Amino acid sequence: MQTMNTASVLIADVHPLIRAGMAALIESDGKFTLLGQACDGQQAMEMCDRLHPDLLLMDLNMPGCDGVEAIGRIRAQHPDAKVIILSGHDGEDDADRSMRAGAHAYMLKSAPLADLMTCIHAVLQGKKFMMPELAVKLASRIHGNQLTPRERDILMHLATGMSNKVIARAAGIGVGTVKFHVKSIMSKLNVCTRTEAAMVAAKRGLVHLN
């Protein structure tokens, strides 16, 4: 809880080095009080319930709970808490889903520390924040063609290397229907091959492959 112009902060990230770096940054600024660190989504939610931070710095991709789901649950339980997503992915899909779920900002882990501090201060002042390059991507996406839920499902299968026949069996549809959707997907992604579609999808955050 924010007191005497000092904002309380909780850090949630799967990587110990990232958590340590964020903790050092927060503790070096007298305007913040570090409440603790969480290593997964479930722990982040539990610590929010117990500590009631003013600000949560959270990795989007953590074990224990989907990041977008965690954002929604945390914001529902703690509507006054501010959430900043720190991600290693510059895909506009991840940024869009995060902001729609209730995050106040989406920052890349590769961003300069000065930009992160600017983001933190802006969010604590009640503003939304997004890196300019991601904002441009999102604007382009809004005005462009978006994939349907069925196309997203097929794209996920396609990205794992499945053939049209296998995708049809997994999705419970005909091979001809799969071919139609694959053609539509490649057109919307502006690619010519299935490999290119998988690469573009991964870069944009439309699919996440290990």
From TrEMBL:
One of its GO terms (molecular function) is DNA binding. Residues 8-124 form the Response regulatory domain. This is Response regulator. It comes from the Bacteria. Coiled coil: none annotated. PANTHER family: TWO-COMPONENT RESPONSE REGULATOR. It comes from Duganella margarita. Residues 140-205 form the HTH luxR-type domain. The modification 4-aspartylphosphate is found at residue 59. GO terms for biological process: phosphorelay signal transduction system; regulation of DNA-templated transcription. SUPFAM superfamilies: C-terminal effector domain of the bipartite response regulators (SSF46894), CheY-like (SSF52172). CDD domains: LuxR_C_like, REC_NarL-like. Keywords: DNA-binding, Phosphoprotein. The lineage of its organism: Bacteria, Pseudomonadati, Pseudomonadota, Betaproteobacteria, Burkholderiales.
